[in-house]
Design a protein that fits this description.
four-stranded antiparallel β-sheet, 3 helices, 105 residues, alpha+beta, 4 strands
Amino acid sequence: MVENCMYMRIAWVQTEPGQAAQYEEAFKKVYHADTMRAVWLGQANDNPDSLFIVTLWDSLEAIQDWESSPDYLGNINPMLSAFILGNYSVSVCEMKYSRGLSSKT
């Protein structure tokens, strides 16, 4: 059980061959939001060009506001899309159980 309702946004991207490191550097420069509880960028062990972005949020509305913000639409998405091969996928889910996450301070 999760004490305070949280939402997770999981994105998967396939970068152009050999561009994962450049995506990571750009990601670190632009991926931020004051309303985001946490963010993780992971690289698949079996495909170095396959990356996963997991973010944790307090509300579904916070995700929607961020995805429709001028910063995301005009800065983050265009910069990171330059490294992506084809489409990417995004899923949003309500957290039902967590263990080991500290509470927001």
